[in-house]
Amino acid sequence: MKRAASCVSRVTRLACLTLSLCLDLCLVVPSAHAAAPVAKIEAMLARPQILCGRFEQTKQLAGMKKPLLSSGRFCVVAGKGVWWRTLTPFASSLRLTRDEIVTYQGDRVATRLDAKTEPVVRMINGVLFSLLAGDLAQLDTVFEVDGSADADSWQVALKARQPALARAIGAIRLDGGAYVRNIAIDEAGGDHTAIVFSGIRTGAAAMTAEETALF
Asked: Which of helix, strand or coil describes residue 39?
């Protein structure tokens, strides 16, 4: 499990937090009632089979004045997985499917984790997809969900149900409209990650031929 966390963290802290979540919360039972208007928010969200776009990530480390900036491209394919490609400042990629996690440095495969030897792979896929797609019903199984919605936008705050995870992740916030626009992660140690999504496209035409071949 330590090997899984290490390799994923080299690509994006979001995936690393998801790994921690899956390790600690795989047996959590959903709550009967959520504080956020989950049904209203989910009715606002589009549910495309394929969703691609750009991301800009700002990582502010506790005790450092200058944040770490990165940007790139992502694709979410419903029922199949996630492609997270960092383009700047260095090329690296993360591909999650039902059966494996593969990290790349440029075009070279850096690590490959198979669900047969690392059962947590399937859990990572599901939870990370839920974050990117704004699947609040699924997120409610592992987080306390609080938030609000108006005519065309919504915002949600997530608090880990298990104390062990809450000590690692202070809070997660999401907001958006038809799609998730922002994810902010405040870690208990003082680090802060903000991810902004833009240029959203949907449908088969949103993916390049190379990206399509990955799934």
From this structure: helix
